[in-house]
Write a structure and sequence with these properties.
The structure holds two protein chains of two kinds. Chain A is mostly beta strands. Helix content of chain A is 0%, strand content 57%. Chain A has no helices and eleven strands. In chain A, strands 2, 4, 5, 6, 9, 10 and 11 form a seven-stranded mixed sheet that branches. A four-stranded antiparallel sheet of chain A has the order 1-3-8-7, with no helix packed on it. By secondary structure, chain B is mainly beta. Chain B contains no helices and eleven strands. The chains are: A mainly beta, B mainly beta.
Chain lengths: 112, 110
């Protein structure tokens, strides 16, 4: 299994909603990542988890809250988002930190 | 500068070779990557090169690295319509962050 699975594929939420994005991998990778990608832009690093511990937070606003319940799962909890947070959120994993990244298909988020 | 630089667009006739160029920022970067992104999809790792290599070939793909100039290129031989996508170069910096270029949109002409 060489896949990174993200759910949901599409999410529409209001600014007062609370929702979560989920990511799963079964490749035994010990590093997992959240990237944000706006249209026609490169992916921007948000968070890195290494061995289930948060190792990099790229000064992301607290309305985004990552969680790594175990080595296969990565969540991104969303609360009180703004319309400018609308983007494609990409999860990735790698065998070790900054190794070859394997990306999921992304969750496309629209904030109304 | 701080940005990984790539030209934004490239048009190539089907069957010709495509060459996508990239200038990265950190001379200490150890890994350099090429990713492909098709519309509405995530990123797919195409190939990578260690900083101590000059060239890597993998089927239709050839990566050239000029470490002195911090220049990376990806050559796609016999370009096909299925190669139409956005190609991102990326570098692994010494702080273990992987930083992406803005991407080059490859358009295939019939």
């Amino acid at each position: 299994d060489t896949e990174v699975t993200q759910t949901p594929k599409h999410l529409v939420m209001g600014m007062t909603n609370k929702k979560s994005l989920k990511c799963e991998q079964h490749m035994g990778h010990r590093a997992m990542y959240w990237y944000k990608q706006k249209a026609k832009k490169p992916p921007e690093l948000m968070f890195v988890y290494s061995y289930e511990k948060l190792s990099i937070n790229e000064s992301v606003p607290s309305r985004f809250s990552p969680e790594c319940p175990n080595s296969s799962l990565l969540n991104l909890h969303l609360h009180a988002l703004q319309p400018e947070d609308s983007a494609l959120y990409l999860c990735a994993s790698s065998q070790f930190v900054a190794g070859e990244l394997f990306f999921g298909e992304g969750s496309r988020l629209t904030v109304l | 500068g701080e940005d990984v630089e790539q030209s934004l667009f490239l048009s190539v006739r089907e069957g010709d070779s495509s060459v996508i160029n990239c200038t990265y920022t950190d001379s200490s970067s150890t890994y350099l990557y090429w990713y492909k992104q098709e519309p509405g999809a995530g990123l797919q790792l195409l190939t990578y090169i260690f900083s101590n290599m000059d060239m890597k070939q993998d089927q239709r793909l050839t990566v050239l690295l000029n470490k002195k100039d911090k220049h990376l290129s990806l050559r796609i031989a016999d370009t096909q319509t299925g190669d139409s996508a956005i190609y991102f170069c990326a570098e692994k910096r010494v702080d273990d962050k992987i930083i992406f270029g803005k991407g080059t949109r490859l358009h295939i002409l019939p």
